[in-house]
Design goal:
Elements (H helix, E strand, L loop, with lengths): L2 H16 L4 H12 L3 H8 L2
């Protein structure tokens, strides 16, 4: 996956966290939105 896509994923997670979501929920929602696995996000995002 392109680096730009990962940056978009991380930004989306941070936005959800800023709105009050916990990390697990934010990662789950973003994984569904972008069509990637949660484990990929955890491995690439460093959350």
């Amino acid at each position: 996956m392109a680096m730009v896509q990962w940056i978009k994923i991380i930004i989306a997670i941070l936005e959800l966290i800023a709105e009050g979501a916990d990390k697990q929920t934010a990662v789950s929602r973003v994984a569904q939105r972008f069509g990637v696995s949660e484990s990929s996000i955890w491995n690439h995002g460093g959350f």
